[in-house]
Amino acid sequence: MNPVVLFDGECNFCDASVQFIIQRDPKGVFHFASLQSDAGEELARKHHIRDDVDSMVLIEGDKVYYKSAAALRISRHLKGAWKLLYGLMIIPAPVRNAAYDVIAKNRYKWFGKKESCMLPPPSVRKRFL
Fold it and tell me: What would be one Pfam family of this protein (predicted)?
């Protein structure tokens, strides 16, 4: 099964992040599900992800990654120099996650909330669960 990125479907920044990944993932490695969708809720239950998660979540096989670990693990599969960001994993997680938490806590204030989800084009739609 392909790795799955769970994201906040109401968050403009999260939606932009998903679009960023799609544009740099020409092999279609990642699949996506909104945390608010039926598929997202089912995956969250299956992998014991808390309801109040305030993070992008990456599910790779039976492993679940949150916050900066999820973002950096995603980066290593993207085309171009984005792969190099994975090297930031050497920074201790509490330090990496402190920056992540600032963005997560302010994402609605800084980037706004969506009233409805964008319908992706058919070529990309199959990657959404």
Answer: DCC1-like
